[in-house]
Amino acid sequence: MPIRIETPDRHVAVLTLDEPKIRNALTAEARIELRDALESLAADPAIHALVITGAGGNFCAGGDVRTMGETDIARIDARMNDVASTALAVASFPRPVIAAVAGHAAGAGVSLACLCDMVVAEETAQFTFSFLKLALGPDWGLSRMLARRVGAAAAKRLILSRGTIDGREAHRLGLADITVAKDTALSRAVEEANNLVGGPTAAIAAVKGMLSGLDDLRAALDDEAAQQRARFPDAEHQEGAAAFREKRAPKYS
Predict the structure, then answer these.
(1) Handedness of CA 5, 3, 115, 85 (dihedral sign)
(2) Alpha-carbon distance 126 to 101, whole Å?
(3) Whole-model pTM?
(4) How many H-runs (helices) and E-runs (strands) does the chain carry?
(5) Domain holding 168: CATH number?
(6) pLDDT by residue (tens digit) across 103-152?
(7) Is 134 a domain residue?
(8) How many structural domains compose the chain?
(9) Is the C or the N end of the chain the one with fewer CB within 10 Å?
(10) Does 23 map to a domain?
């Protein structure tokens, strides 16, 4: 199963992306299970805080590149609707959500971290802005949520760079709230989650709703879906996806 849920403490849940062979990529199945898990946990009054992490030493490799290169508009629209509903389920979760980032967080994996309320990253974590490597724009709300963390200019530079930053640089820029040593992100995230339990849960949900910028996120998801609808069938993305599968450099005209 792509998603695993544990409760190490009575009021804290740990949701683990659990497909380490593909670095916990957000497959269609994983998106559905993630959304279902979030809805179930949101309905449980015993859960006061949530930690999202990845299995096997990595956070999330982003979208499942094996399924990219799609040209059918109906399927692209269905994919982006699925992405939007799952991203909103993370951002609108009524209790604090903490990302515990180790290893690789690439593409939509960076987006997933940015949708959380707090990011705990290991100093050796690698945040890769990989969308343009596949001739795609950012999705999962990154076009807005990254700027909310690091500022508009830095967000633009990071996305256009197609590069990678480590946990230390992510902390310097504001992408990560806390940096920790290797192999300690999850324990520190659970510790931070425990510090947040016991509060007025209804008031916390109300304040989160006010501060989360959900209207901006919805607008971003709409804009991103429109761009991806155009980008997926384009020859540049077709070449980028083929190059990734064939383990070669893309040849853009």
Answers:
(1) negative
(2) 9
(3) 0.96
(4) 10, 9
(5) 3.90.226.10
(6) 999 999 999 999 999 999 999 999 999 999 999 999 999 999 999 999 99
(7) yes
(8) 1
(9) C
(10) yes
Q: Alpha-carbon distance 23 to 44, whole Å?
A: 29
Dump the DSSP string for 164-223: EEEHHHHHHHTS-SEEE-TT-HHHHHHHHHHHTTTS-HHHHHHHHHHHS-HHHHHHHHHH
Residue 103 is assigned to a structural domain of this protein: yes
Q: What is the pLDDT of residues 3-26, one digit of tens each?
A: 999 998 899 999 999 999 999 999
pLDDT for residue 223: 97
Q: Which amino acid is at 39?
A: E
Q: Provide the residue range defining the domain that includes 90.
A: 3-182
Q: Tell me which DSSP letter residue 118 carries.
A: E
d(CA 32, CA 26): 9
Q: Is the pLDDT of residue 186 over 70?
A: yes
Question: What number of other Cβ atoms are within 10 A of residue 134's Cβ?
Answer: 25
Residue 1 — very low, low, confident or very high, per pLDDT cuts 50/70/90? low
127: β partners: 105, 165
How far is residue 47's CA from residue 42's CA, in Å, rounded to a whole number? Answer: 8
